[in-house]
Amino acid sequence: MGRSVGETMNAAYTDIHGRSGRLHQAFRGPKFTLLALGDGAAATTATLAWPAMGDPLDTLAVSDPGSGLKRSYGVTGPTLILVRPDGYITAVDRDGRHTDIEQFLELVAPAA
Predict the structure, then answer these.
(1) Which Pfam families does the entry link to (predicted)?
(2) pLDDT tens string 72-96
């Protein structure tokens, strides 16, 4: 998708475990970050087959993303947003599917 997350990098969140933070903290480090926004989105992350080699995946699940995140990301239901290590959004999947994320993985980490 090529859209930077810069405009929402400082957004506050409370994750499903009650921990609060700012998105810029969650995006730190050489890793991919999977934002699971909305009720039910976190449950779908368990079935995502992330490659064992390469950059790790960190998941941040937020059951109530709040109006700022909803508006910034166009969230209307359960949404998964994959953010590259350089801070750009690479895939967005809605309604509990991760089709676009799996297509991205097929391109960058094809099965042997």
Answers:
(1) Rng_hyd_C
(2) 777 788 889 999 988 888 998 886 6
What is residue 33's predicted lDDT score, i.e. its pLDDT?
92
The rounded percent of the chain whose pLDDT value lies above 90 is: 10
CATH of the domain at 27: 3.40.30.120
Question: d(Cα 97, Cα 14) in Å, to the nearest integer?
Answer: 23
The model carries a pTM of: 0.82
Which residues form the domain of 11?
3-108
Contact call for residues 56 and 29 (beta carbons, < 8 A): no
SS3 string, the chain, reads CCEECHHHCCCEEECCCCCEEEHHHHCCCCCEEEEEECCCHHHHHHHCCCCCCCCCEEEEEECCCHHHHHHHHCCCCCEEEEECCCCEEEEEEECCCCHHHHHHHHHHCCCC
